[in-house]
Amino acid sequence: MTVQGSCDPAFAGVREVFEQNFAEGRELGAAVAVYAGDRKVVDLWGGVADRRTGREWRADTPCFGFSCTKAVTAAAALLLAERGAYEVDGPVTDWWPEFGTAGKEGATAAHLLSHQSGLPAFARPVSAEEAADAPARAAELAVQEPEWTPGEAHGYHALTYGWLAGEIVRRLSGRTVGEFAKNEFARDLDLWIGSPDEVIERAARMSAGRRVSGGGGADAPRPAGDAALLDRLAAAYTDPGSRMNRALNNPHPGKGGYNNPVVLRAGWPAAGMLATAPAFAGFYRDLVAGRVLRPDTLREGMRTRVSGPDRTMLIDSAFGLGFMRPAQTFFVPAAGRDSAFGHTGAGGSIGLGDPDAGLAVAYLPNLMGDHLSGDLRAYRLVEAAYAALS
């Protein structure tokens, strides 16, 4: 498979890893981009954007980013806090009175942003068509009883995060997350949360990879505890009644999965982004450079608010205000463990920024991995980028 694009000689290791992923059959189509400061040092793509038609991946092919979307939603919410629209550690009821029911009276905006609100899943099945109505889904969560008291624990809010953290943006700006992000800091980026049809038509089409095999798959860094824990993870993932399954699979995207135009047009704020790799890396470049948020706002957003056992994912996770921090759910090389932030996506994608290193990385594949807690394709690319800096 021919890899196209450009790569600074100092970052040749990233190209080698990217090409190796194709050579080993780990990719269908993919793109990776890296910024060192404001300098784009890697912009590579290759493979097939649509397995059905054989359409090739091009320089301007956008790809679905799954939960990588959450970092964009978090940045939008933090920008409003920076402007004084609300207090991060203040009560949600200050700006969303209806939320203060069923034991959620003490919830703060920080709880919504850091997966502590106790609402990791909807209490009933929700369709893709229903999920397109953001105000209605937020209203539904506002009256739902939490699965734990907000603030007493954390558990990954895989999809509900979008209608919780996203409600900060909708209520306090009058715009959807996608509209706010596009107008405020993504105007010049090929990045959308809620995509027009012409973008959907040229987007890469997601394809299923191997079946899920537990916490990370055979080629991912293993969670501590190994066999017994992997069995627990695999069982939870496939058990319709488990919190993990309910959180990851409801709302269901419907026919075509995450290729469904209903989902892509709606732009779920937790998992609805289409972007090119250079644009997504450009988002992190601008975050790191202080062009989206002030440096002190970003540092506060990065500051680890929760870490340890995740009540949804059953392994250790760590979150700031919407951003993942290094943990079993966000594998980062040793060089970035103190200063890296970002978010992974279920299909194997990743977005990462590091203010100390001046690094921004984005990787977007369309062959979905089978990994619950990491994807070695992304890890190897990030590792190579850090190695190039040193």
TrEMBL record:
SUPFAM superfamilies xrefs: beta-lactamase/transpeptidase-like (SSF56601)
A Pfam entry, by short name: Beta-lactamase
The Beta-lactamase-related domain, residue ranges: 16-385
Top-level taxon of origin: Bacteria
Name the record gives this protein: CubicO group peptidase (Beta-lactamase class C family)
Source organism (scientific name): Actinomadura algeriensis
